Please model this.
Amino acid sequence: MHGVILAGGSGSRLWPLSRELYPKQLLKINTEKSLLEATYTRLLQIMDEKSIINITNRKHLSDVKSQLDVISKNVTLLSEPVSKNTAPAAAVCVKYIMDKKGDDLVLILPSDHLIKDNKLFAKTISIGEKYAKEGYIVTFGITPSSPQEGYGYIKTGKDLNKKEAFTVAEFKEKPDEKTAKKYFKSGKYYWNSGIFLFKASIFMNALKEYAPEIYSIALEFNFKKNSEIDFMKFDKMPSISLDYAIMEHAKNIAVVPLLSDWNDLGCWESIYDISKKNKEGNVNIGNVISKDCKNSMLYSSDRLIAGVGLDNVLLVETADAVLVCDKNKTQEVKYIYEKLKEANNETHRIHTTVYRPWGYYTVLNQGEGYLTKMICVSPRGQLSLQSHNFRSEHWVVLKGTARVTLDNKTYILKPGSSIDIPVKIKHSLANPYDVELKIIEVQKGDKLVEEDIIRYKDIYGRTKA
Amino acid sequence: MHGVILAGGSGSRLWPLSRELYPKQLLKINTEKSLLEATYTRLLQIMDEKSIINITNRKHLSDVKSQLDVISKNVTLLSEPVSKNTAPAAAVCVKYIMDKKGDDLVLILPSDHLIKDNKLFAKTISIGEKYAKEGYIVTFGITPSSPQEGYGYIKTGKDLNKKEAFTVAEFKEKPDEKTAKKYFKSGKYYWNSGIFLFKASIFMNALKEYAPEIYSIALEFNFKKNSEIDFMKFDKMPSISLDYAIMEHAKNIAVVPLLSDWNDLGCWESIYDISKKNKEGNVNIGNVISKDCKNSMLYSSDRLIAGVGLDNVLLVETADAVLVCDKNKTQEVKYIYEKLKEANNETHRIHTTVYRPWGYYTVLNQGEGYLTKMICVSPRGQLSLQSHNFRSEHWVVLKGTARVTLDNKTYILKPGSSIDIPVKIKHSLANPYDVELKIIEVQKGDKLVEEDIIRYKDIYGRTKA
Model:
C-alpha cells in the first residue's frame, strides 16, 4: 500500500495561530507534534517511509519539509506549483505512484486531522484494504456525534458485512440545521472524512470516466523521467475537490466507518473541546492569569493575558494579533481572515515570526526606511548565499557565534560584534556550531521587502541553476 | 487663591494601560490631554501658573514634569521622597504656600479626575471661595447618579444658602450595597470628591488639633530656605488620608455640590461609559476589526485585535499584556495587578515602552546576556552623560541623525551607521535636529539592569553634584 498525504490547506480557520503561509497542519497547539507530523507518523505504522508521498503548495514547501525531515531521512515531497483543490493533487500523486511503483493500493488522507488512537485507525484501514482489493473506492465515514452542519454526509446503502462496511447510497453536501438533525436521527449517515483508499488503476478509470480533463492532463506527466510537477500542465487542470470530481458520481464506492477517534479541528471551539480543562472548564495555555472565569480558553503565545469574570470566551494571542471571540462563534473567524485578506493586511498571511529550515526570524519593528529583525539560526544551520539590490543590512550578534561570508571573505563574529552588509554585495550567514545563533538585523533602504533577494546558493550550499 | 494638584497615585485600576510607574493621571485614553494636563489646564482658568503647586511621588517626577512642561514654563513641582497618602502631601504644600506666599485660600484637588465642563467647575469653586473666606473647610460633593459602593459619602446638615452649600452632618466610609441604596434614596448624601478649599491658616489649625504629629513635622519645613522636601522629616509623617486625618473630625466643614460633570475613571467600565459608542454600543479604539459584537470595548494600543460575537466584554491590549474582562467586573482588575505585584512580575510596574523627558524607549527583546531596545529621542532632546560598569552597548541609527559623545569625542551618525560603546566609557546621545531620532541599542553583559548607570551630567547638561 502507498500513502498520499495532502498537506496543502489555507490558514483561515485557526487564525491568528494559523496563517496563509503557516496553515493548520503545521501548528503545534499545545502538542509535541504538529498535525502533519502526527499524520506522517500514523502512516509509518502502516507502511514504510518510501511508500509515503506528501504533496503541498510550493509556498508551504520549506515549512512542510523542515517538519518531515526531522521524522524521516526519506521524505518524498511533491510541490503543487499552484493551488488546485484535492482532485488534481490526488491525480498527479496516483500517476506518480503508477509511474514509479506500478499499480498498488493508495490511501489518500488530509494532513490536518487529529486522530489519537493509531491502532484503531490502522485496524480500520485494514478493513478498507479488503474492499479496495475487491475494486471498491473506499471512503471512511465518521460516526456523527451531533447534527453538525459543517460536514458533508454519506448515506449508507447495503451492509457489506456486519456493518464493517456499506455501499454508498448518496453523498450529501453540507446540510442545513433541519436536514442535519434528520440525518443524525436516522443513523444512516456518516460524516465524510476526506480519507480514501483504492487501487491506483481503479482510481484512474474513475478519473477517465468522471473527470476526463484531469485524467488526460495527468497522463501527460511522466514521473519516470521527472519528479517535478510541471506548472504549465498542472495549471490547466480544473480546481475541484475529489468528492465533486469522483465520489459523487462513481458507482463502486464503499464506506467504512472509522473505528478510531477523529477531529478535524475545524475551528477554535474544537481545539477547546479536545483540550484539558481545569475544574471551572477553562483552558489556559501559556502566560495566563485569570480570576472568576469559566468555560473559557485563554491562549498566550507571547505576552501576558489576564482574564477576569469571563464565561464562554475564547482569546488567542500572537505577537501581532489578538482574537477574542464568543466560544460558540469561532467558525466566524474565517470572516475576519477574509476581511484582512481583502484589506491586504499581512496579518492574515504571515506571522511576525517566520520559520525556515535553518531556524526562524522575528520582525521586531519597522518604519520608513528601516526594518529590524531578530534572526535565530539553529546549530549547523545556514542561510543561502544572497544579495539585495535595494537594502543594506547591519548585523549584531546577540548569542552564539556567527560565520559570515561577505564578498568571498569569511568573518567569525562573537556576541557584541557587528558587521555591515552593503547593497548588492554577496553574503551569507551560518551557524556551524552547537549552540543557537541569535543576531539583530537592521535593514536600511527605500524598498524593504522579502522579495528583494537574489540567491546564488541554496541553504544546502547547492549552486542555483 | 492657590492650587495644589496631588499628582501621586498608583497604576492599579486601569492596568494594563496604567502601571505603577505610569499611573492613571498620566494616561491619554483616546484623548489629546492626559488627566493631569487637563487638571492643570482647568486650574489655569482660575489662577495663574505661579499659584499652582504640583506634588508627586519621586518615581513619577520625570513623567509629570515632561507633561506639565509642555503646558507651562513656570511649573512648580514638589517631589514626595516617599508615598504618604494625601494628608502629609497636603500639609507640606500648604506650609510651602504659607512660607512663600503667606496665608491664602488653597484649593486641593486630585490629578486623575475627568471634568469636561470647566466653566461650571470654576463657578462651583467661586461658590466654595465664599464659604472658605468665612472660615469653612469646604469640600465639594458629587451628586450621586447611582447607589455606588465604591465612594465615601458626605451627609448634609443645614442648608447654608439655597442649597448652594450645606454644613456637613457626617462623613461616611464606603457603604455596603444596602446602605448605599438607602443613602441614594434619601437625597441627603453626596459622594466625596476629594476636592477641598480652605484658608491655609484654618487648615493648619485643623492639622494642629486633629493631626498634631503631621502638624509638628510640617512646621519643621522651612520652604523660604529650601524648596526640597527633606526625606528624613517627611518619612516621619504617618501615612493617612486627608479625610481620616481632618475632614471626619473638623467641625467647620461645608459641602458645596459640584455643578459640573465629574468622573473619577475608577475602572475600565467608567472609561467605556464616557466613550463614544457605535450603534451596537461598541467602543473600538486603535487597530480593531469586529463582527457581531455589542456593548463591548476593544482597545488596541499596539497590535491588531479581532473581536467576534462578543457581548459586554472589555479587552485592553498593550505591547506586553492583554486584559480581557467581563465589562461589569472591571473593578477586579485591581486583583490582577496585586497578583502580578506579589509574583514580582514587572508587568504591573512598567511598560515595555518607557517615557522620558527626552523621548522614550521600547524593549524589543531580551535574553541571556543581551537586551535590545529601540530608543527614540525627540527633536533637540538629549540623554544624560553616563557610563555603565557591567554592559557594553552598540547603537545603530534607524532614522534621523545622532550626535554621539564617546570618551570626549563627538560623532555624527546617519541612518545605517553604528557605533560601539565599551564598558565604563563615558557617553551620551543627543538629537540636536528637528526630526525625531530612532536608534537600535543592543546591550551586552552579564548584568543588564537600568540601575547600572553612572550619570555625570543630567539631561539639561548640568553637572551632577
Remarks:
- The two ends of chain A are 36 Å apart (CA to CA).
- The mean pLDDT of chain A is 93.
- The longest helix of chain A spans residues 86-101.
- Chain A is about 25% helix and 35% strand.
